[in-house]
User: Fold this.
Amino acid sequence: MTSTAPESTEHARNGELMLDVNDLAVYYGNIAAVKGLSLTVHKGEIVTLIGSNGAGKSTTLRTVSGLLKPKSGTIDFNGQRISGREGHEVVQLGICQSPEGRRIFPRMTVSENLDLGAFLRRDTDGIAADRARVLELFPRLADRINQKAGTMSGGEQQMLAVGRALMGSPQLLLLDEPSMGLAPVLVDLIFDTIETIREQGTTILVVEQNALAALRVADYAYVLESGVLKMQGDAKKMAENDDIVKAYLGG
Amino acid sequence: MAVSTPDTIVKGAKTDIPPSVNRRWALGFLVAAIVTYVFYAFVVPNLGGAGKTFVATWIPAVATNEALVWVICAVGLNIVVGYAGLLDLGFVAFWAIGGYTAGWIMSTFIQAVNPGFYLLSAAYPDQPGIHLNWWLVLIIAACLCAFAGVLIGAPTLRLKSDYLALVTLAFGEIIPQVFLNADRFTNGARGIAPLDNVSALPFGPSAIAIGDVKIPISQPLGPFDTSAKFLLFSIVAAFAIFVSLRIREGRLGRAWLAIREDELAASMMGVPLMRTKLAAYAVGAFMGGLGGVVYAVHTNSVFPDRFTFSISILLLAMIVLGGMGNVWGVMIGALGLAWFNSTGLPQFGFWFNGQFGTEINFPSYSFLILGAILVLMMLFRREGLFPETRTRQILREAERSDAEELDGGEV
Assistant:
């Protein structure tokens, strides 16, 4: 498999187009981190972007969030051009991110962290409803609601990071390495919750190094290697294909 | 999976500081201010010789008033450094701008305006120059400083921590130099003096008498009416403290804390970074302007050589000592260090030299001593004397280890 053209396995993608990344290139100074990446996320899907360390996954996600500016290429969300916009504008449009390394606010309580997730919202009732929803998804957070977030365990912090992103009531939820540094039992729990979140109507784009965990819940997958798209297709089929797993997923 | 959660959990508490704490402190501030006023206005004049000497030596009214200036500015700088986490080494610039604004619009300095323009002023009549009521001057100077804060902030706030500190340092040096050298507009090194008299209100009775106690109302207050000025300065300080506590509880305050904790994460929550940081600069500068005017009124003059780098550093030391982010702690830190610097150390020096026949110039060692205090603080009480609740907890609670988490296989 030496061809650079992305391989594709059959998959019918229903639902309207939500996120459309087209020929995206992102540079850090002179170094290209992402080279001509195109991907789409349709409404109601869980899409995963997998690849090894340094493949450009997080860079892609941060560019979608408006934290990095693309060198070329475009990003459209619900038909609106969002590439080049500021981070807070992208959040306003309905894209919320749970960042790599969780990055919860350590000196604030769980409660304050969740409040900040809803920073741009003013609908008090909606915020309260989402808060209840998040605490139902992660009952652990309700137990620790007034605890300083920095004193929680890694798993709890990850739950908080996801919950905080949900507080923005996103149409599209971006998750950056939710399994990082977690015990296997916690990884399963987080991904189970990701499925629940999708069932509740939120579309999800998840970036992962732990490819098998991500493929288990995803509908569609993109494999990134050194900033270049290597493969894309139905996530379940990809997980079953031993050759692919061996070649790209370190399986 | 129905979870019954108490309402506070679902709705979320506004803050982790119980309002009763702030109420207690506010009450303490009020009582302390009234007691201090009564002390200087009515007790001290009736004291015997020894008592009077003691007060004049160790707690002179002038030093108390000056300490309030430091409180106002430290509370302002606390917004930039303590709330938003932006290191600002040039805060003295706003102090200077506020002072010169007072110099321009409440003195005879602008001779071109002749006959003078008076607006609700307690100044002597029939002089040239612009003479505005000092409350108006406070507002104008503070707004001008806020604007200057935005002007300085807009190009510099894109920089990250250390670089931002360096650029603010430069501004703190440049602005007093500008005032020193723009001779035509600032009178250069000769400064602007005297300033107009001020009054509590521009109209009404000259003073209200409660028994023997006479509280001045529209009576003009000159350079020597220290106790009456103490009341006025206390009001400005209380305003600065109140505003900074209120903002902290609101959206803007939460956005500042978020930026201080983690800028990138804050941005992901939708906090507009540039705008929020500029707001911190503007509000901080606003209070720096208030402090500048109060200082000018306190000393009845404005001189460029007063606005030195050491002021910025001393303000920062007050914040660190008092407890970064905690307004009340910063207030205590400011009062303490201001007293130490203006009175405590020099008087201790006199006493020591007199006692032991030495000739040590104690005030010249003030920064050495301050430095030593700060080093000790960093070693033994990093969070300051009166830390923010959130800081205290995180520094004292051990982090749960991952091993612990894996141990029980619990989530």
